[in-house]
Structure formats: structure tokens, C-alpha cells
């Protein structure tokens, strides 16, 4: 096995932050080659950034959309009467950017509810815009602390020396900080626990190669990149003792939507008797969606498949099917790790109880 591991350690890049009255957002399409922060100052720019995967990962797109609402609310701060309808219009527009990750709708609902309270209490629009900004900042800060808790719960499932496979990027870049599935790796590093991480490259957009391998390597985590079709091979060699992934939406019955290829990894894990863990905040669990079959699956442009590596990799005009996510049925999920603890089957009951607690 070749090892091109970089030994220098540095902080994981922050995916987004409010800075100088605008949203400063790391353009993740350019990683790992270029680190460029974009300055977004309109809801439309935020919508495009989400749609084009400049920002991606369920919690991060929710946070970005929350700041998008602030930008929209600011545009209408001179009009007390139409302020609330305009804020709601911007939120509904931002909700059309991507369909699968429920954190987007969760964050927008929270911003709309806050705007409604502010409007109902007759708060002057200039103050209301500031209060919406505070709410977006709070969503971001809560995501960071939530992810740390998820990391602590997840780390309790791992032992020193274990090999752990992950798919896509559910790391600091996909969230406010730490990530969900990658959080235990950062905490393990802090505590001197050695985990050997295998990162699937995650075709077609290569979030595993461009983002997970990048952020873990930068932090000094022991990470080995593999192509997606190598996962079964490394499992058969006995190198993987657990799989952990993030998710874009968990249905009420525990079915899990995550990056395309996750389902195949779960089937492989089952075949090799390896536990398959899903890490997510409560904001990713959608009790109003009964099963995985009810989760809308985004289909993306065929170019992602036919121009995958910056050049044509398939014949012109070939039919392409490019779903961005798949559904892992709950029977393949060993446990769901949240900020409130570790949830196991039966998921219908246990997920509901989580919200009742
Ligand atoms: O298309 P993407 O890159 O937004 O997909 C991201 C994923 O599937 C992540 O695994 C998921 O959002 C969890 S992020 C903590």
C-alpha cells in the first residue's frame, strides 16, 4: 500500500462564515487544488452556490440557506408591511435549490418561524434583520457543538487500532465543524486513539477524494484513499472493523438517504459482518417522511458522469442515469448516532422517542 500521507497538521478549513456583511463561503468545487472563499451577498448567489455544490453536505447547506434568508431580509428592510412575505418568499426560493437533504428545509423553517415572531411582535425591520442574523449564527454554533457530541458517542463504539471506512464527505467541510461521520476521527486524534480510516473516493463528484481525504490528511488523521469499487476488497482482507457515514435524511422507519454508493457499502458491510453506523444531528431525522421510498432523490446533470475527471470519459450522447443519493434500508443500519446518543432498531419507536425525550 503506498502512503503519500502528509505529516504536517493544520486546522480543517471552515466551510462558511458571516464576514463583512456577507456570506463568505469556501468554494468546495475547487478543492483540493484551490482554497477560494466567495463573497455572497444575495439569496440568488446562495441558491446557486448550493445548487452547484460550491457548498454541500446536509448541515452546511442548511446553514448557508439560513444566511441566504438574512440577505433576503436585508434587501427588504425598508418596507415594514411587506417584510415578512418577502422573507418567506426568499426562504421558499432557497428551498428549491436541492431536494434531498432535510437540513435545508429544517433551517429554512426555523428562519421563517423566527421572522414571523419578529413581525408579529412589531419589531422594526432593521432590528429584525439583526435578529435573523443572530439566529443563523446560532444554527451554525449549535451545529458545531452537536457534532462534537456525535463524535463523542461515535468514538465510544471504536477501539484503538480499528480500521474504519467512510463514504462521501460528512466532515468539517460538510458542517460548521468536526462533521458527523468524521467527528470521531478528530476526537480520536485529540485523545491519542489511533484509527485507520479508509475513504471511498465517491464517484461521480469525488467528495471522498477531494474533500474527505483532503480534510483528514490536513488534520493528521491516518487516511487511505480507495476507489469505490475497492471497498469489498479491503473488507475481505479484514482491514475494516466498522463503517460510518453521514446522511442527508433519515426517514421515520430508519431508512437512510446518503450519497450514491452508500447502499452498496452497507450491503458489503452486511456480507462481511461489519457494523454499519450512520451519524447525524436530530435536524437530519425527518419523522414526517415515513420511509426511504418517500425521500426525494436528486438527479444531477449527466456531465458529472461523462466529464468526471475534467475530460470526456464516455461517448457523446450516451444515456446516463445520475442519482446523487441512494436509500439504505433500516435493516442494514446497525445504529444511528446522534447528539442525544446511539439509537438502534426498532427505529420507528426509538426515533420517535428521541424527539419525545
Ligand atoms: O451531494 P453532497 O456532497 O451534498 O452529499 C453529501 C452527503 O451525502 C453527506 O454524506 C451528507 O450530506 C452528510 S454531511 C454531514
Automatic annotation (TrEMBL):
<dbReference type="InterPro" id="IPR005251">
    <property type="entry name" value="IF-M1Pi"/>
</dbReference>
<feature type="site" description="Transition state stabilizer">
    <location>
        <position position="168"/>
    </location>
</feature>
<protein>
    <recommendedName>
        <fullName>Methylthioribose-1-phosphate isomerase</fullName>
        <ecNumber>5.3.1.23</ecNumber>
    </recommendedName>
</protein>
<feature type="binding site">
    <location>
        <begin position="258"/>
        <end position="259"/>
    </location>
    <ligand>
        <name>substrate</name>
    </ligand>
</feature>
<keyword id="KW-0486">Methionine biosynthesis</keyword>
<dbReference type="GO" id="GO:0019509">
    <property type="term" value="P:L-methionine salvage from methylthioadenosine"/>
</dbReference>
<feature type="binding site">
    <location>
        <begin position="56"/>
        <end position="58"/>
    </location>
    <ligand>
        <name>substrate</name>
    </ligand>
</feature>
<dbReference type="InterPro" id="IPR037171">
    <property type="entry name" value="NagB/RpiA_transferase-like"/>
</dbReference>
<dbReference type="GO" id="GO:0046523">
    <property type="term" value="F:S-methyl-5-thioribose-1-phosphate isomerase activity"/>
</dbReference>
<feature type="active site" description="Proton donor">
    <location>
        <position position="248"/>
    </location>
</feature>
<keyword id="KW-0028">Amino-acid biosynthesis</keyword>
<feature type="binding site">
    <location>
        <position position="98"/>
    </location>
    <ligand>
        <name>substrate</name>
    </ligand>
</feature>
<comment type="function">
    <text>Catalyzes the interconversion of methylthioribose-1-phosphate (MTR-1-P) into methylthioribulose-1-phosphate (MTRu-1-P).</text>
</comment>
<dbReference type="InterPro" id="IPR011559">
    <property type="entry name" value="Initiation_fac_2B_a/b/d"/>
</dbReference>
<keyword id="KW-0413">Isomerase</keyword>
<comment type="similarity">
    <text>Belongs to the EIF-2B alpha/beta/delta subunits family. MtnA subfamily.</text>
</comment>
<comment type="pathway">
    <text>Amino-acid biosynthesis; L-methionine biosynthesis via salvage pathway; L-methionine from S-methyl-5-thio-alpha-D-ribose 1-phosphate: step 1/6.</text>
</comment>
<dbReference type="InterPro" id="IPR042529">
    <property type="entry name" value="IF_2B-like_C"/>
</dbReference>
<dbReference type="InterPro" id="IPR000649">
    <property type="entry name" value="IF-2B-related"/>
</dbReference>
<dbReference type="Pfam" id="PF01008">
    <property type="entry name" value="IF-2B"/>
</dbReference>
<dbReference type="InterPro" id="IPR027363">
    <property type="entry name" value="M1Pi_N"/>
</dbReference>
<feature type="binding site">
    <location>
        <position position="207"/>
    </location>
    <ligand>
        <name>substrate</name>
    </ligand>
</feature>
Amino acid at each position: 500500500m503506498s502512503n503519500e500521507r502528509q505529516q504536517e497538521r493544520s486546522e480543517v478549513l471552515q466551510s462558511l462564515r458571516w464576514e463583512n456583511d456577507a456570506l463568505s463561503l469556501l468554494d468546495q468545487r475547487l478543492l483540493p487544488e484551490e482554497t477560494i472563499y466567495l463573497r455572497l451577498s444575495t439569496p440568488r448567489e446562495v441558491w446557486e452556490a448550493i445548487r452547484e455544490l460550491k457548498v454541500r453536505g446536509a448541515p452546511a447547506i442548511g446553514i448557508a440557506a439560513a444566511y441566504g434568508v438574512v440577505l433576503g431580509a436585508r434587501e427588504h428592510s425598508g418596507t415594514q408591511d411587506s417584510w415578512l412575505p418577502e422573507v418567506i418568499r426568499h426562504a421558499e426560493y432557497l428551498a428549491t435549490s436541492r431536494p434531498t437533504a432535510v437540513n435545508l428545509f429544517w433551517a429554512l423553517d426555523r428562519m421563517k418561524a423566527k421572522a414571523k415572531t419578529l413581525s408579529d411582535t412589531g419589531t422594526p425591520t432593521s432590528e429584525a434583520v439583526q435578529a435573523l442574523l443572530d439566529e443563523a449564527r446560532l444554527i451554525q454554533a449549535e451545529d458545531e457543538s452537536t457534532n462534537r457530541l456525535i463524535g463523542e458517542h461515535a468514538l465510544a463504539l471504536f477501539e484503538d487500532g480499528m480500521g474504519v471506512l467512510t463514504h462521501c464527505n460528512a466532515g468539517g467541510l460538510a458542517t460548521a465543524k468536526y462533521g458527523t461521520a468524521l467527528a470521531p476521527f478528530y476526537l480520536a486524534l485529540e485523545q491519542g486513539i489511533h484509527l485507520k480510516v479508509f475513504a471511498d473516493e465517491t464517484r461521480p463528484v469525488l467528495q471522498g477524494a477531494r474533500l474527505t481525504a483532503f480534510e483528514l490528511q490536513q488534520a493528521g488523521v491516518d487516511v487511505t484513499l480507495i476507489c469505490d469499487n475497492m471497498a469489498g476488497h479491503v473488507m475481505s482482507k479484514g482491514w475494516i472493523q466498522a463503517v460510518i457515514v453521514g446522511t442527508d435524511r433519515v426517514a421515520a422507519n430508519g431508512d437512510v438517504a446518503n450519497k450514491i454508493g452508500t447502499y452498496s457499502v452497507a450491503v458489503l458491510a452486511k456480507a462481511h459482518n461489519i457494523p454499519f453506523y450512520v451519524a447525524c444531528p436530530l435536524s437530519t431525522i425527518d419523522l414526517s417522511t415515513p420511509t426511504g421510498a418517500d425521500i426525494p432523490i436528486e438527479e444531477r446533470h449527466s456531465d458529472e458522469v461523462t466529464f468526471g475527471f475534467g475530460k470526456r470519459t464516455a461517448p457523446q450522447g450516451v444515456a446516463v442515469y445520475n442519482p446523487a443519493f441512494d436509500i439504505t434500508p433500516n435493516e442494514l443500519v446497525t445504529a444511528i448516532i446522534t447528539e442525544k446518543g446511539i439509537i438502534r432498531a426498532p427505529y420507528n419507536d426509538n426515533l420517535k422517542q428521541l424527539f419525545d425525550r
